[in-house]
Design brief:
The protein is α+β, with helices and mostly antiparallel strands and 661 residues long. The chain has three domains: 238 residues, no CATH class; 196 residues, no CATH class; 127 residues, Immunoglobulins (Immunoglobulin-like). Strands 4, 7, 8, 11 and 12 form a five-stranded antiparallel β-sheet that branches. A four-stranded antiparallel β-sheet has the order 10-9-13-15, with no helix packed on it. Strands 1-2 form a two-stranded antiparallel ribbon. A hairpin with a 4-residue loop joins strand 1 and strand 2. Helix 1 packs parallel to helix 9 and helix 11 packs antiparallel against helix 12.
Length: 661
């Protein structure tokens, strides 16, 4: 037989690899561009807990490095460093009156160059140096992500002094981490013997999944947790293939060490999964070669980095003491009640977990609830969205059942192997897949803290490859015959379809939530209008006082939101715009043209469907105490300014509690 032509042998596999790499590059680029668009499209601080996360990053950036709370009283900010004062930016973004209040939109003009220029040109120190350098999370979260974010802000400050630019640079770090995580995700899935087509599809699903885009466009540490968790699991699988490969052992040790100073519970989950795999593998093979050296490579990075974390916190009280947390899981009460108390507790927590996982906050925030979990994804129409979510809930219930059945099947078979005198083999097989083990450990962790009000679907984000791998490859194997492959195909097609739809419909969802029909003011000069003694027709439907706190952080209480609708009843038409007066004096023009279903319902005329108005008032220069607010309606032709109606009272300096209506 003739020898194959030079360069031909193995060419098919090489071409396929090149094609897969090209598709992977397209997926990473598309996912990163969508997340980058979100960075600028979502208003500042309108992401879960972004206020306190940015405060931490800004503190380390301002200090030029790590901060020990015990030293804050003696620290100063280096002269000449541009400071993105968090309280000032939070005030300008009006997060205290927008977060968790869907009827309140972004400030007028938000997103335009004029708005950002005004924010940059009017910077005031929102806090003292000591307040800036002592953010709440400094005594609550490890420093890993925030130090990296501060470094990104530091590099950005070499090119611009804009506080707004520094904020967006802090957000953009998450986009860069997403790109790295997706490449690692693909290789992780391939190491799990997933075919290249499915690995690419799952990587694309993870990259464009609505929750991924939301978290990868905001300031928060889960993005780095995702990168490090995926890297550690990939390294663990590489070590499983080549037991004594010091390069991958070093990578695993560094990834775990960095994860320890990023998110402790993800470190515990991944470290236990990877450690159990390594230990059981060596015990089964009776291989003790170089174990002291390899153990040192794995644990020294964690010891060194955690020592730095402990040193920074030495002598500082924790942000939240055990007494403040209360008895949220209610373990002590359950144990005190004996067997009936324990049984009742298990019953309550199991039912709560089931409902939260399939219909509750955990479910909705996993599949697409943006902002401060106040903006559910709308897939075109509410009817289609409800139908899709009921379908997803049904499949989730089926997957939960299949996963539990498969877990029982595997446990039974491993027990049979152990009873036949092959205990080491059974244990090695049980812990051979650190990706699956990490998922089950995460599930156990979340189950143990169910009932805590902060549980959200985003807690799955750093281990999203494990979540989808278990759903697609593990759970369907519990079903006999062709039912398993059918469930797999249904999930794969459904995930791809939902992800594409979510990526498309997320933007109109965000637009309706934050921008209504635009944030630009109608150009009407008040001084040119003719006063009309006729009182304008309007209704103030919401006067929103600021919330004092969100999560563990405090917010500046110098913004008040006004929402309502107004028409020109003389012309029987929508008004041109409205002005807000305070104590009888001109104060601010409102954004006019929001959706106004209440006006349509009240007046019985569908032509009034976009007569809503909203305004966010800066009360910084108003005295503390009660003030009178009135609305002045501008006629439809833009020539007359109608008289005000009955005043609405509000109190400057007053706040409302978290989650208040």
């Amino acid at each position: 037989m003739a020898a194959p032509a030079a360069g031909h042998h193995g060419g098919g596999a090489l071409v396929r690899d090149r094609a897969a790499n090209l598709v992977l590059a397209v997926i990473v680029l598309a996912s990163s561009l969508v997340a980058l668009a979100w960075v600028f499209y979502v208003p500042m601080f309108e992401a879960p807990d972004e206020t306190v996360h940015f405060e931490y990053s800004a503190a380390l950036y301002s200090a030029g490095g790590l901060i020990a709370p015990r030293d804050v009283a003696h620290m100063t900010i280096p002269f000449g460093r541009p400071i993105p004062y968090p309280s000032y930016l939070e005030s300008q973004a009006a997060v205290a009156v927008i977060a968790e209040k869907p009827e309140v939109k972004a400030p007028a003009g938000y997103g335009g160059s004029a708005y950002y220029s005004a924010v940059d040109s009017s910077v005031v120190a929102g806090e003292t140096d000591q307040q800036l350098l002592n953010p709440p999370l400094l005594r609550y979260y490890p420093f890993g992500y925030y130090l990296l974010d501060a470094a990104v802000m530091g590099v950005t400050s070499l090119f611009t002094k804009s506080p707004v630019a520094l904020f967006f640079a802090a957000r953009t770090l998450s986009v860069a981490l997403l790109a790295i995580s997706l490449v690692l995700t693909y290789f992780l899935l391939r190491r799990l013997r997933t075919g290249s087509l499915l690995a690419l599809a799952l990587t694309g699903v993870i990259g464009l999944f609505p929750m991924t885009t939301m978290l990868s466009s905001s300031v928060q540490s889960d993005s780095l947790s995702f990168t490090l968790s995926t890297l550690a699991l990939l390294a663990a699988l590489e070590v499983r293939r080549r037991s004594h490969d010091m390069r991958w052992l070093t990578v695993l040790g560094l990834a775990l060490g960095l994860l320890l100073v990023t998110k402790v519970h993800y470190f515990a989950i991944v470290a236990i999964a990877a450690g159990a795999m390594l230990v059981t593998l060596r015990l089964h093979e009776k291989d003790a070669r170089r174990w002291p050296l390899e153990a040192a490579v794995l644990v020294i990075p964690a010891i060194v980095l955690e020592s730095i974390q402990v040193w920074t916190q030495w002598g500082s009280p924790p942000l939240i003491a055990a007494a403040q947390l209360g008895d949220i899981p209610d373990y002590r009460s359950a144990l005190a009640g004996g067997i009936p108390g324990i049984a009742g507790y298990i019953s309550r927590i199991t039912s709560f977990t089931f409902l939260d996982h399939t219909f509750g906050r955990e479910f909705t925030s996993f599949w697409g609830a943006f902002g401060w979990v106040d903006t559910p994804l709308v897939l075109g129409t509410p009817g289609v969205t409800v139908a899709a979510w009921f379908l997803i809930a049904g499949i989730s219930i089926a997957l939960l059942a299949c996963t539990l059945v498969r877990l029982a099947q595997v446990t039974y078979r491993l027990a049979r192997v152990a009873r036949r005198g092959r205990f080491r083999c059974a244990v090695r097989m049980a812990f051979s897949n650190p990706v699956a083990i990490s998922f089950f450990l995460l599930a156990a962790f979340l189950f143990s803290v169910e009932g805590y009000p902060g549980i959200q679907g985003r807690y799955y984000f750093p281990l999203l490859p494990a979540v989808f791998w278990v759903a697609l490859k593990y759970a369907p194997r519990s079903l006999p015959g062709k039912f398993g492959p059918a469930l797999f195909r249904m999930q794969a097609v459904g995930l791809v379809a939902y992800t594409i739809a979510g990526a498309i419909f997320a933007f109109p969802t965000l637009a309706a939530r934050y921008y209504a029909h635009g944030r630009e003011l109608v150009p009407v000069a008040r001084e040119t209008l003719t006063a009309d003694s006729h009182a304008g027709r309007y209704v103030v439907t919401r006067l929103r006082l600021p919330e004092a706190t969100l999560g563990v952080g405090r917010l500046p209480a110098n913004r008040i939101a006004v929402v309502g609708w107004a028409i020109d009843d003389m012309a029987e038409a929508p008004a041109r715009t409205v002005f807000i007066d305070v104590d009888g004096a001109a104060f601010q023009q409102a954004v006019y043209g929001d959706d106004s279903p209440q006006a349509v319902a009240t007046l019985g005329n569908s032509s009034y469907d976009r007569c809503g108005f909203d305004a966010i008032l800066d009360t910084t220069h108003l005295s503390l105490g009660a003030h009178q607010l009135t609305v002045r309606v501008v006629s439809a032709d833009g020539s007359r300014l109608y008289a005000s109606g009955p005043p609405v009272e509000f109190v400057v300096g007053a706040t409302v509690g978290p989650g208040s209506a």
